[in-house]
């Protein structure tokens, strides 16, 4: 053995004797007292006397690191479970968890997904199984929407008058959407009612079929949004499906056997649940609100008489900040002439209840917040909780760079790209609901 190897052996042995062994002796004693006599007031003193090394679990902000610690040995797993039970840490930190990337496995096997930490692109050693290839995240709550589609070609008449009869080829899609939660084995899949769309069979629709053929995520896959966790509220949760290509919003509630559809004058770019309402942004920048109760659906277009922006955005997102404000984020070409690159504009939406209008207040800075944007899910967290993230910036994915994640700095409008070893063009941002080891 070399002298460096011998040095490390001596170092690790000394560390065990001086720190780890005394810690486990005291911890085992305190844990035994806690289980044998829960009413003993002296038990809390035993926990308070634990060495400072036990507090290392407080410094592990990633759930995957928490799992790795618990997997070392049986004693460490017991310690991690007791730590979670006493502190209820993960229940308190759900809104502060850093999003992870949900990526199809490199083998391309159907229904297999992996979680990658961000930034860095390290796999979490957690592989998830889902029943099909087409997947959309349900905003929050750790649920996914898996989709299968049955397509039919229909020949329909375009006029009811016999002297002006024309036949037209259309395509009908019948979507089967299932809600699954791969992070909770006890959560049973929820099959939603069939959702059907009918549209013109054009070259554009054929082009979208080519996207699907080569494994790219076409924009016509509905984006699914949940109002709340179906496990906690099985009868009151609401589901919204956004079909951007058809300018359609579809709504259903837990237990219902049908969808209610709303057709909009322009394409819906994004939608979100905010303060008991469904708010959507159209391609022209106008805002639409939908209030759904048990018997009716009330819609309201804000500032419908005028176009909010002169030009359309490449992408538009609705994001709720950590302070509860609703932000409208627009992704635009870097210059007005459509040059290479992109830029982002952030607006705070201020609603005026008196005259029914909404103001777009431009924000030059989002402060300590950092956004994660995608077509399926958009999230905002505090950068101060995650030193690896850059504050006042936006992380996003672009199909033009299938192995990269880009970061846009709102202060100087610079773009930094993070390279991944695998194709992440189909990746989804997700905040999985980690409740600790129970």
Please outline what is shown here.
The chain is an alpha+beta fold and 438 residues long. The protein has helices spanning 3-36, 42-48, 63-70, 74-87, 89-92, 203-213; strands at residues 100-104, 112-116, 123-129, 134-137, 144-157, 167-180, 190-191, 195-200, 223-226, 238-243, 248-253, 260-263, 268-274, 277-282, 287-292, 297-302, 315-320, 326-333, 342-352, 357-363, 369-373, 379-382, 393-397, 404-409, 415-419, 428-430.
* Number of separate helices: 6
Number of strands: 26
Helix content: 10-25%
Low-pLDDT stretches are 40-44, 199-218
Task: Please state roughly what percent of the residues sit in beta strands, choosing from under 5%, 5-15%, 15-25%, 25-35%, 35-45% or over 45%.
Answer: 35-45%
> What class do helices, strands and sheet pairing give?
alpha+beta
Which shape, going by the Cα principal axes? globular
Give the biggest beta sheet.
5 strands, antiparallel
Rg, rounded, reads 26 Å
- What number is the mean pLDDT? 73
State the end-to-end distance: 43 Å
What does this entry look like structurally?
With 438 residues, this protein is an alpha+beta fold. It is built from six helices and 26 strands. The strands form six sheets. Strands 4, 5, 6, 7 and 8 form a five-stranded antiparallel beta sheet that branches. A hairpin with a 5-residue loop joins strand 17 and strand 18. Helix 1 runs antiparallel to helix 2. The longest helix has 34 residues, at 3-36. The radius of gyration is 26 Å and the shape is globular.
């Amino acid at each position: 053995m070399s002298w460096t190897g011998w040095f490390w052996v001596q170092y690790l042995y000394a560390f065990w004797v001086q720190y780890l062994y005394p810690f486990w002796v005291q911890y085992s004693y305190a844990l035994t007292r806690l289980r044998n006599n829960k009413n003993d007031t002296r038990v809390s003193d035993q926990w308070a006397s634990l060495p400072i090394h036990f507090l290392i679990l407080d410094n592990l902000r990633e759930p995957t690191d928490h799992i790795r610690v618990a997997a070392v040995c049986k004693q460490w797993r017991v310690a991690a479970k007791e730590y979670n039970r006493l502190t209820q840490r993960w229940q308190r930190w759900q809104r502060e968890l850093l999003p992870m990337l949900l990526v199809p496995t490199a083998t391309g096997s159907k229904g297999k997904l992996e979680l990658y930490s961000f930034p860095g692109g390290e796999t979490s050693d957690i592989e998830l199984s889902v029943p099909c290839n087409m997947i959309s995240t349900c905003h929050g709550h750790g649920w996914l929407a898996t989709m299968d589609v049955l397509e039919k070609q229909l020949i329909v008449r375009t006029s009811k008058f016999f002297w002006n009869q024309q036949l037209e080829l259309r395509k009908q899609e019948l979507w089967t959407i299932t809600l699954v939660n791969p992070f909770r084995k006890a959560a049973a899949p929820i099959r939603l009612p069939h959702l059907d769309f009918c549209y013109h069979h054009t070259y554009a629709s054929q082009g979208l079929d080519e996207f699907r053929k080569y494994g790219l995520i076409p924009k016509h896959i509905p984006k699914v949004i949940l109002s709340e966790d179906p496990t906690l509220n099985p009868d009151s949760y609401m589901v919204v499906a956004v079909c951007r290509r058809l300018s359609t919003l579809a709504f259903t509630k837990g237990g219902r056997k049908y969808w209610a559809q709303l057709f909009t004058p322009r394409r819906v770019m994004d939608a979100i649940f905010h303060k008991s309402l469904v708010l959507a942004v159209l391609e022209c920048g106008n805002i639409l609100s939908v209030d759904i109760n048990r018997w009716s659906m009330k819609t309201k277009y804000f500032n419908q008489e005028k176009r909010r922006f002169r030009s359309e955005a490449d992408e538009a997102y609705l994001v709720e900040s950590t302070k509860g404000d609703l932000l409208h984020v627009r992704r635009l070409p870097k210059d007005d002439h459509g040059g290479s690159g992109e830029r982002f504009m952030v607006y705070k939406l201020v609603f005026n209840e008196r005259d029914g209008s909404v103001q777009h207040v431009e924000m030059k800075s989002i402060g300590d917040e950092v956004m994660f944007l995608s077509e399926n899910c958009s999230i905002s967290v505090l950068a101060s909780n995650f030193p690896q993230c850059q504050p006042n910036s936006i992380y996003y994915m672009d199909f033009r760079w299938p192995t990269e994640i880009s970061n846009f700095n709102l202060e100087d409008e610079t773009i930094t790209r993070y390279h991944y070893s695998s194709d992440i063009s189909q990746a989804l941002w997700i905040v999985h609901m980690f409740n600790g080891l129970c």
